[in-house]
Amino acid sequence: MEANLARTLDLRDVILARTLNGLNAGVDSSIADAEVAKARLTLIDAKNFEQQQANRLSIQMGITPEALRQYAATNQPGAVPLDAEAVQTIRLDTTSVQKLPGNLLETPTTDLADHPGLRYLASQITTSNLNASYFQKIGLPRLSLFGVGQERGSGFGPKYATNLNDYTTNFFTGIQPQRANYLLGLALTWDITNLGRSHSRAAAQRERSQAFTQEYNLEKNTLVNQLSLSDQQIRNALDKYKETPVQLQAATEAYTQKKALYENGLNNIVDVSQTLYLLNRAEIDRDIAVNAVWQALLFKAGVQGNLTPFLQQF
What is the pTM of this model? Predict the structure, then answer.
C-alpha cells in the first residue's frame, strides 16, 4: 500500500504539471487528488489491520505495551522512547514474502503414530483397557498368604523353680527372646456380591475403550486425509505462485504504457487509474501467493505434529 501511494503521488505530480500547462483538463487533477486520497485511506486501513494483528499477537504471547517499548529501545538501532501508537507495533519477519521454502515436496513424512494427538489417544485406550481388566478381576476370589511371628523373654533362668535367685534385673538381658512362635497360612475369600458389579463395571469400561479406539481411528483417518490434502495444497500454491510473475509483469508493462501515453496526450486519466489499480492488485497477489506456500507448509507440519521441517526453512 505504501508503494501504491508512492506511485499515485508520482502520477499526480505528472498530472498537475500537465494541467497547469493547459495540456490536460482540470478535472484530471481532481481525479488524481481522489486517487491519492483513496491510496492514503487504503494505507491507513492496512496499518489498522496490522496493528490489530499485532495486538492479538501481543495478547497471545503475554507481551505488555511496556515490554514492547523496552524491546524496541534495546533491539532497534537509535531507538527512542516510543509513543502510544508505536508501542503496539511489532516488527514483522518478511521472510515469508521474500522467498519460497526449499524442497517443499521432499519434506520427510513423519510417522503419524508419533503424532502427539494420536499418542494421547493411544494412552487413553491403554489406560481404559487396564481399568477394564482391573474391574473384571475385582469379582474373582482372593487368595491371601499371611504369617505371624512372636518372640518373648522373661528374665528368669531355667532353674528358678529350685533356685529363687535364678533371675536378672538387667532390662536388656531380660528382654532377650527365650520362646518363639509362628503361624503361616493361606486365606481364600470370595465376595459373590461383587461378581455382578465388577462384571458391569468391566463391561462399561470396555465400551469406553471401544469409544476411545473409534476416536483414535477417526483422528488417524483425519490426519491421513489432511496429510494428502497438505501435499495438494503445496502443489496448488506453487502453481499459483508461478503465475504471479506473469501477472505482475503484464500489469507493470500496462501501467508504464498507459502512463507514457497519458504524458504524451494520447490517453485519458481513467485508463491510467485502471492500470494503477491492476498493478497494485498484482503486487498484492504476488505476496499472498508466496505466503500461501508457507501456510501450506505450516499446515503440513501441523498435520504431522512436527514443526521441525517448517522451522528449518528459516
Answer: 0.65
Hey, what long-range contacts does 228-233 have (CB within 8 A, 24 or more apart)?
230/296, 230/299, 230/300, 230/303, 231/105, 231/300, 233/296, 233/299, 233/300
Q: Over the stretch 130-182, which tens digit does the pLDDT of each residue have?
A: 999 988 888 888 888 989 888 877 777 777 777 777 777 777 777 777 778 88
